[in-house]
Task: inverse folding
């Protein structure tokens, strides 16, 4: 009976969703190919584990950065192209703070606030890392969250609030304008120099030939804690319930007496705060910072959010991790210059096969 | 009162006649840049060259906006991947024309054949991309197309394809360093052997060169202007084509899809097919226009096809107003002359007339002087290369937000080509039109 059942389900799949069936076959083939390559020794087990670990780190970055995007996407109904530059803004705000705290007295305030840049501040002399200067990093994380939340609120007040009734495409185009403005405001203020951030001996652990960096672990742990916090907030508080209600049906939420404008504000605050944290942590893990950091990540974050299903917080997390691991695993078959291409292809395939994402229908839960 | 009547007169004179409107616009832009040249103390050659550059960019952006208008203004397909299709057009042409012996090698085909090939390839890729994509919502379509254009750019940049051999055929994209393109084809009008490094002018070339030489105008400038004239002819042709398409039964179906897809389907039209055709046609046109753009420079690199290129075209389109071909031309010209080229000229005027000392290294240094009410350090900081280009892009961002908030239909959006063949109702007058 069971075999018959599976057979008919398979038959259904092939007849009704041929595209999905083809991609499923390709996926199964690739998984088998990994085992075959492991068996024949073409790739070593340590390589595979380090791909998985690096993929997890990238995935947690994308997931944390994606939660805010997913929230605004579901509650305000538009794809926010300025999200990448909110990530960058958070990173700059947080790192200026961390530099200021770590180097006050030793270096000029000007050079610290500008995070080095045109004026040389040796990041090695400052020696910021998670063991040497945990307080500077914690302060940086907090300031990144607060300032990005404030920036999000300000942008909402100036740009998005006057066009609350506009359709998604109009809002999306306006957000492209915001993205251009933000990124180039940062360029104008900080210029285009790439900055080294961390210094000193960053602790790292090597287990059976695979290296786990201290800042990678920090990112994964803090991101996991922040996501857990977001989950508790959304699931067990009144405001979380109101946000979920609004994501599900805006008119009904309004009729029920939910103060929608206040919910929108809180969405920007929570989403912006998480985005700022994401920017700060991603910069910490990368060890460098440029003004295009967030913009370069934006499409990947979109990919993570869409993969998980727009509006779903878990979707953003799971989507990020799957995308991160899949794009790093792709290195088994393709050269490194096609890493991003692989991630974008995954996103496009996902949109074609299942546009509602893996966690479809579960808005903000 | 007099300004009011002047406005009425201007509106009456310009409002109903697109040709007059476009001529007035060209004169205004030309006048502005002639003024810039006088202020900056350019020689005649410099002035004419400034005008050439502005006219060239205006024509290119007007054509790109027209092509995008076909997809977004007529059929409502939100293509944020324009830069990718432009790259496909330029690179196909470049690879087809590159000599077999060159590095990276190509196919050594003559230019006209290569252009036709490039248009076909871009159109086919556009059609294939549209096949699955048009089922998507507008915002997903935007994300998919921008991802597509990034895939194209990253692939062209990848060292793996810079100089490769597939199935025994050697070719290459040149990777991150870019690809050389054939020399400007308009040179054939003026030279007997245009490919030579120091070519001899033919009869026409000799006559024109000797006529303008006493005025201090260089040969390259004559060629540049000839190219701009050719571009303007292409622009006129494209404009005529768009008007024709708009008025044809095909165009009416497109506009009805834009208004309400379900009604169109209910009337028995296969909207999918119409959308795919439009997408493919628009992409093929973008490929062609990009070829015209890059042929004058003789060089293409993946850096030129970043998403910002697509946003430039959208800004041009939104300034003019979606759905109106005349609006696309107005938007392209205004974008190229005021927003794209304007800031660098303002910066040159500032640098020329204010004796600016050395710029401070950082914004903090520039702002510190503000305490003593001295704004020159801030100005000096602002007119540096990096800062002025950042300020220009900030301005573009503000313009985009302003347009979306106040005029989502653009300057000429109220003249959006209506879907029916005859006007069915008087268009409601909008309040903010009088602002």
Result:
């Amino acid at each position: 009976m069971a075999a018959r059942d599976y057979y008919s389900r398979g038959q259904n799949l092939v007849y009704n969703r041929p595209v999905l069936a083809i991609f499923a076959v390709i996926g199964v083939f690739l998984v088998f190919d990994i085992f075959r390559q492991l068996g024949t020794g073409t790739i070593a087990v340590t390589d595979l584990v380090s791909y998985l670990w690096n993929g997890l780190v990238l995935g947690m970055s994308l997931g944390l950065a994606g939660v805010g995007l997913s929230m605004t996407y579901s509650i305000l109904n538009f794809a926010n192209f300025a999200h990448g530059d909110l990530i960058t803004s958070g990173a700059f705000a947080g790192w200026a703070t961390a530099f200021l705290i770590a180097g006050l007295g030793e270096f000029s305030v000007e050079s610290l606030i500008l995070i080095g840049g045109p004026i040389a501040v040796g990041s090695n002399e400052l020696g910021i890392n998670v063991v040497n200067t945990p307080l500077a990093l914690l302060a940086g994380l907090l300031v990144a969250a607060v300032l990005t939340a404030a920036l999000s609120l300000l942008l909402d007040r100036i740009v998005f609030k006057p066009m609350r009734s506009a359709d998604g495409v109009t809002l999306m185009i306006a957000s492209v304008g915001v993205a251009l403005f933000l990124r180039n405001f940062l360029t104008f203020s900080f210029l285009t120099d790439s900055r080294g951030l961390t210094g000193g001996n960053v602790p790292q652990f090597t287990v059976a030939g695979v290296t786990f960096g201290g800042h990678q672990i920090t990112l994964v742990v803090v991101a996991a804690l922040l996501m857990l916090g977001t989950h508790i907030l959304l699931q067990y508080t009144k405001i979380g319930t109101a946000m979920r209600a609004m994501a599900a049906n805006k008119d009904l939420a309004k009729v029920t007496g939910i103060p929608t404008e206040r919910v929108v504000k809180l969405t920007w605050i929570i989403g912006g705060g998480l985005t700022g944290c994401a920017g700060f942590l991603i910069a910490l893990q990368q060890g460098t910072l440029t003004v295009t950091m967030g913009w370069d990540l934006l499409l990947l974050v979109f990919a993570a959010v869409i993969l998980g299903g727009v509006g779903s917080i878990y979707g953003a997390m799971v989507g990020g991790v799957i995308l991160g691991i899949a794009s790093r695993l792709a290195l088994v078959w393709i050269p490194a210059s096609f890493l991003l291409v692989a991630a974008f292809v995954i996103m496009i395939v996902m949109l074609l096969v299942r546009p509602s994402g893996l966690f479809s229908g579960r808005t903000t839960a | 009162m007099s300004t009011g009547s002047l406005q009425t007169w201007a509106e009456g004179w310009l409002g109903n006649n697109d040709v007059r409107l476009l001529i007035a616009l060209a004169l205004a832009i030309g006048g502005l840049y002639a003024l810039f040249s006088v202020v900056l103390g350019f020689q005649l050659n410099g002035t004419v060259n400034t005008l050439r550059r502005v006219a060239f960019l205006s024509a290119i952006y007007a054509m790109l906006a027209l092509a995008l208008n076909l997809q977004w203004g007529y059929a409502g397909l939100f293509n944020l991947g324009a830069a990718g299709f432009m790259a496909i057009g330029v690179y196909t042409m470049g690879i087809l024309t590159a000599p077999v012996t060159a590095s990276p090698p190509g196919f050594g085909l003559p230019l006209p054949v290569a252009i036709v090939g490039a248009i076909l390839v871009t159109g086919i890729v556009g059609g294939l991309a549209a096949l699955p994509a048009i089922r998507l919502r507008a915002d997903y379509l935007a994300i998919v197309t921008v991802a597509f254009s990034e895939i194209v750019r990253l692939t062209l940049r990848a060292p793996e394809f810079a100089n490769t051999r597939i199935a025994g055929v050697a070719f290459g994209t040149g990777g991150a360093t870019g690809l050389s393109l054939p020399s400007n084809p308009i040179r054939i009008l003026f030279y007997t052997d245009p490919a030579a490094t120091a070519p001899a002018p033919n009869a026409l070339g000799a006559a024109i060169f000797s006529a303008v030489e006493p005025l201090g105008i260089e040969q390259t400038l004559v060629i540049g202007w000839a190219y701009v004239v050719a571009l303007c002819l292409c622009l006129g042709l494209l404009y005529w084509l768009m008007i024709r398409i708009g008025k044809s039964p095909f165009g009416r179906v497109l506009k009805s899809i834009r208004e309400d897809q379900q009604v169109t389907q209910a009337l028995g039209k296969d909207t999918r097919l119409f959308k795919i055709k439009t997408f493919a046609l628009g992409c093929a046109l973008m490929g062609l226009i990009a070829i015209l753009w890059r042929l004058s420079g003789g060089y293409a690199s993946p850096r030129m096809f970043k998403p910002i290129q697509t946003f430039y075209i959208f800004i041009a389109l939104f300034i003019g107003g979606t759905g109106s071909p005349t609006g696309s031309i107005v938007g392209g010209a205004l974008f190229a002359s005021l927003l794209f080229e304007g800031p660098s000229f303002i910066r040159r005027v500032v640098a020329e007339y204010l004796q600016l000392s050395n710029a401070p290294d950082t914004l903090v240094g520039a702002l510190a002087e503000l305490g003593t009410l001295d704004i020159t350090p801030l100005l000096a900081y602002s007119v540096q290369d990096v800062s002025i280009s950042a300020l220009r892009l900030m301005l573009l961002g503000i313009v985009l937000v302003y347009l979306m908030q106040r005029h989502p239909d653009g300057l000429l959006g109220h003249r959006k080509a209506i879907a029916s063949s005859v006007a069915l109702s008087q268009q409601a007058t909008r309040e903010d039109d009088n602002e």
User: Anything to note?
Assistant: The beta strands of chain B are 164-166, 169-171, 179-180, 299-300. Residues 47-302 of chain B form one domain. Chain B touches chain A through 48 residues (CB under 8 Å).
